[in-house]
Amino acid sequence: MISIQLNDLQVECEQGRTILEVARAHGVEIPTLCHHPSLPPAGLCRLCIVEQEWPDGERSVKSSCTLQATDGMKILTDTDRVHSLRAGVIELLLLRAPHATSIRDLANLYGVEQPALTQLQEPDGCVLCGLCVRTCEQSMAREAITCAQRSTGRSVATAFHDRSENCVGCGSCVNVCPTGVLHLEQQDGVRRIFWNDQLLNETELVPCEDCGDEFTTRQLLDWTAQRGKPNAVDTEHPVCPACARQRQARRMARPLARY
Amino acid sequence: MSETTTGFDTGGIDTILARYDGFEGHLIGILHEVQKLYNYLPREALERVSEQTGFTLERLYSIATFYNFFSLEPRGKHVIRVCTGTACHVKGAPRVLQEIEERLEISSDETTPDGQFSIEHVHCVGTCSLAPVVVVDQDTHSHVKPSKVRALLKNYEDKG
Q1: pLDDT-based confidence at A240, cuts 50/70/90?
Q2: Nearest chain B residue to A164, by CA
Q3: Which domains does chain A have, with CATH numbers?
Q4: What would the pLDDT profile of A8-29 be if each residue is shown by its tens digit?
């Protein structure tokens, strides 16, 4: 265990923890957009910046999601400088996603009103946090979406802006998207995932054998079976997690019924 | 010779890939060679590379759109790169670019219908003392004036 100073708190933590993890464990608020506990830190959104104070009193700005705690470190998460730098980041994000609730909430929190900068292009509503791309690649091992182009033209896209055969319709990208620019529709046994108006792919919904709820897609079932995940759903007889629990409970109750 | 269902000849790509011992870390080199073969990166070519290397088409698309050098559109036989960096801009590059565009009747990043010329604008080629600079294929033309553009293009038209 090592000891660090977090604002006025003296806290202990394990070696190798990031400042963001330590702060959240102790109830210290740090906003993030590109962070997800199940993914490695990316340091992309710059919202989680904090100040590190050195023994000589000098302070430097660091992104807390990538900064590892070391013994005796002194971190300030709520200084005027941190506040104004975060406000600057939010102002830029607001230009990209003026309608996203998450961004508007942040803007309210940090007192950002109308951005002072002029909009050069129509905002597509995406803040390029990369969560969807990283989730698809690192959690699902699929790479159905990617970041295309660069600089001001950078955007989340499939290859050639066409439907992606690599998309299994798991919907993870929709779940992690902080702006809602990724969304899904389910109709007549088909799941469609969209990035704005662009269709990523159409997948076939599969109903649960017990309750009939369309809880997954054929492509996702096949992919989890192929990956050999220990809790993979039976592809021949798919049962949704809630019904699977009930089946398990019934199996456990059966021997008791004899008494 | 191998072909895809659409009749696209992939033999050249397979020859390129056969020279590589493992593909991890060589993707950009492979795409360089494929682009040299077709003068751009056709979709069918990327699909073949994806199929043979196991890299997703999305990964290849991401790389191909990130680097300026790669083009997903067919390019002309001669690629005209007009420098629009600071020095060239001050010395009149915008007028040179406009003259070239008017003469070829295409805009920057386009190709003439006969497939002879493409125009690209680049940001500084590192020879500011020669400004304004126009690089055609491998030749660097210095101190280009709008009045010199006609002769410059003629030079390449004659080469066919």
Answers
A1: very high
A2: B58
A3: 2-78 (3.10.20.740), 131-250 (no CATH)
A4: 999 999 999 999 999 999 999 9
Domain boundaries, chain B: 11-66, 78-159
The terminus-to-terminus CA distance of chain B in angstroms comes to 29
Tell me how many residue pairs between chain A and chain B have CB atoms under 8 A apart: 40
Distances (CA, A) of A217 to A12, A170, A225, B58, B104: 45, 7, 12, 21, 52
Nearest to A237 by CA among A209, A213, A256, A216: A209
Residue B66 token pair: 């990130």
Q: Return all residues near A1 (Cβ < 8 A) that are at least 6 apart.
A: A12, A13, A14, A15
The answer to whether A150 contacts chain B (CB < 8 Å) is yes
Our CA angle for A156, A160, A161, nearest 5°, is 50
pLDDT tens for each residue of A160-177: 999 999 999 999 999 999
Query: Which amino acid, one-letter code, is at A178?
Result: P
Any chain A CB within 8 A of the CB of B59? yes
What does the pLDDT average to over B47-68? 94
Minimal CA separation from B78 to chain A, in Å = 24
Cβ-Cβ contacts under 8 Å, A166 against chain B: 56-58
Looking at residues B111-130, what average pLDDT do you find? 90
Three-class SS state of A99? coil
CB atoms B61 and A144 under 8 Å:
no
> Is the pLDDT reported for residue B1 higher than 50?
no
CATH of B78-159, one of 3.40.190.10, 3.40.30.10, 3.40.50.720, 3.20.110.10: 3.40.30.10
Contact A180/A230 with Cβ under 8 angstroms? Answer: no
Residue A102 pairs in a beta bridge with none
SS3 B3: strand
Cβ-in-10-Å burial (0-12, 13-18, 19+) of B27 comes to middle
How many Cα atoms occupy the beta-carbon half-sphere of B60 within 13 Å? Answer: 30
The complex scores an ipTM of: 0.84
What is the least distance, in Å, from the CA of B108 to any CA of chain A?
17
Residue A168 and residue A200 in contact, taking contact as beta carbons nearer than 8 Å: no
